Amino acid sequence: MKTLVIILFGMCSFFAITQEHKNTPSEPYNLEGVWELKHQFLYNENNQVSDTVQNQNGYRQVKMYSKGKVMWTRFDPKDSNEWFGYGTYAIKDGVLEERLEYASGPMMKIVDTTQVFTFELVMDVNSYQQIDVDEDGHFVLAENYNKIK
Fold first, then answer.
1. Which of 16, 49, 81, 86 holds its CA 20 to 30 A away from the CA of 130?
2. Which domain holds residue 78?
3. Could you tell me if 29 and 123 are in contact, meaning their C-beta atoms sit under 8 angstroms apart?
4. Domains in the chain: how many in total?
5. Over its length of 149 residues, how does the chain's per-residue pLDDT go in tens digits?
6. d(CA 79, CA 72)
7. What number of other Cβ atoms are within 10 A of residue 145's Cβ?
8. By the 8 A CB rule, do 118 and 94 touch?
9. Could you give the CA distance from residue 54 to residue 36 in angstroms, rounded to a whole number?
10. 20 in a domain, yes or no?
11. Distance from C-alpha of 126 to C-alpha of 68, rounded to nearest angstrom
C-alpha cells in the first residue's frame, strides 16, 4: 500500500510539473496573429516620448506573424506608392529581427541598404511596441500595435 501511495504521488507530481512546463513559454514574446498600427511615438535624447503621431485620413498599417514569417502592408491615401513586405522574423532576448525577402518597389530600395530590421520589443497580451534604437542606444521611434486577431 505504501508503495502504491508513493507511485501515485510521484505520478501526480510528474503530471503537475509537466503541465506547468507546458504552459510556461520558453520565450515570453508571442507575435503570432494579426496586428494593427495604433500610433507611433517619437523620442527625445532622454528616451522619453516627445510626441505621439496618430494615424490620420485613412492611414492603415497591418502586420501578420505566423510560424516565423512576417507580412505587412500599409495604406496611406496621401501616398501613391505601394508599401508591403514579406519575410522572416525571430525574437531573442527582447529583440525583434525582421528580414524581408520580398517587398514593394519603394520598400525594396530600403531593403537593398538594410538587410535586417532590428527593434527592441515591448509587449503584453494584446499590444506590442517595436522600438527603433540608434547606434548610441537612444530610442528614435516606436510603432505601437494592437492585436486584432
1. 81
2. 30-147
3. yes
4. 1
5. 544 344 434 444 433 443 333 344 445 679 999 999 999 999 999 999 999 999 999 999 999 999 999 999 999 999 999 999 999 999 999 999 999 999 999 999 988 888 899 999 999 989 999 999 999 999 999 999 999 97
6. 16
7. 22
8. no
9. 13
10. no
11. 19
